Amino acid sequence: MLGKTVERFNSEVKTQSLKNVVVEDSDYKTVYWAMKRVSERSGHDMAAGKNVPAPTPDDMKADLDELETFRIQVAKRGKDQAKVREALEEAPKAQVFG
C-alpha cells in the first residue's frame, strides 16, 4: 500500500516511491478494522473474561481472500497513479514565439 516507500527490515525511506501511493479513506478503514481483528487474537495479552473464539479455517480463508483482493486493488491504483505522476515530472515543452 505504501509503494515500497518504507519496508520491513530496511532502514531507507524511498520518497521517490511515493509517486505510486494513493491512500483513500476506504483503505484506512480496511486496514484499521483488519488490524483490530488480528490484534485481538495475537500479539497482545487478552483479558481472561474476553475469551475471543479462534477463527475457523473458513474465517481465515475469507480474511486471506479479502486481503488478496485489497492488495490487487491497491497495486492497480498505484500503477495508474504512477503514470499520472510520471507525466508531472516531464519537462515543459519549449515554446517558440515569433
How would you explain this protein's 3D organization?
With 98 residues, the chain is mostly helical. It contains 2 helices and no strands.
Which characteristics define this entry?
single chain, 98 residues, mainly alpha, 2 helices, elongated
Which helices and strands occur, and which strands form pairs?
Elements: H1 25-39, H2 57-88
**Major beta sheet, specifics?**
none
**Multimer state:** single chain
- Would you tell me the overall average pLDDT? 87
Task: Spell the H/E element sequence.
Answer: HH
Helix content: 40-55%
Q: With helices defined by DSSP (H or I, 4 residues minimum), what is the helix count?
A: 2
Shape: elongated
Strand content: under 5%
Radius of gyration, Cα only, in angstroms?
20 Å
Q: From the helix content, strand content and strand pairing, which structural class follows?
A: mainly alpha
The termini sit apart by 49 Å
How many extended strands? 0
Uncertain regions: pLDDT < 50 for 5+ in a row?
none
